[in-house]
Amino acid sequence: MSQNRSLTDLKNIGKKIASRLNEIGVFSEDELRHIGAVGAHQMIKEKYPEETLSVCYYLYSFEGALIDKHWNEIGEQKKKQLKSKIG
């Protein structure tokens, strides 16, 4: 049940991450939900291949935003599952 909140209303999404999402065409919770945490991570990685941020900065933050949890509370099992999808 999405409320289509703005990105910065979601957990883990500050101005910098919201800006990165905007640059790949994601402007709302529904749009992030549509492409998913893995899709958003991959799109940002493609747009900024020289950027070497830790996986938690984007991938885990996006997943946490979608389930309304701090990125570090999504659980090790879920983190491993997400990491396995980004190749």
Automatic annotation (TrEMBL):
Residues 4-85 form the TfoX C-terminal domain. InterPro entries: TfoX-like, TfoX_C. This is Competence protein TfoX. The lineage of its organism: Bacteria, Pseudomonadati, Pseudomonadota, Gammaproteobacteria, Pseudomonadales.
